[in-house]
Specification:
Elements: H1 3-21, H2 26-48, H3 50-60, H4 65-105
Helix pairs in contact: 1-4, 2-3, 3-4
């Protein structure tokens, strides 16, 4: 197994643990925004200087720069998918709690005949 494969698998696992442990904290939201900005800056650089991605890919043990970009995009997609899933689960839980609170607040005692 190539060390780039180990690095990519480890990064996916680290992102998974990060998403599962830091749900909703302000610090985690800030790091996501910083990571997104860095991702965009790196993408712009890769567009402007595509030969540099091949140099970095060769340095990391990947044959082509496009393969390296594909690996990075797969990790970004996994992060985005997991993050969105976790956010929807949190919203679903909040709606459930809100519906229960409204139902209990508007509950009426049944009339006895």
């Amino acid at each position: 197994m190539n060390w780039i494969q180990v690095l990519l698998i480890a990064s996916v696992l680290v992102l998974l643990v990060y998403l599962l442990r830091s749900r909703g904290s302000a610090r985690s939201k800030a790091w996501v925004k910083v990571g997104y900005v860095l991702f965009v800056i790196t993408g712009i650089y890769a567009i402007l200087r595509p030969d540099d991605t091949t140099v970095v890919a060769n340095w990391l043990g990947v044959d082509r720069g496009t393969d390296l970009l594909e690996y990075v995009l797969i990790i970004a997609f996994a992060f985005t998918t997991l993050s969105t899933y976790m956010r929807f689960k949190d919203i679903e839980l909040k709606y459930t709690r809100l519906a229960r609170a409204v139902a209990l607040q508007n509950a009426q005692v049944p009339e006895q005949s």
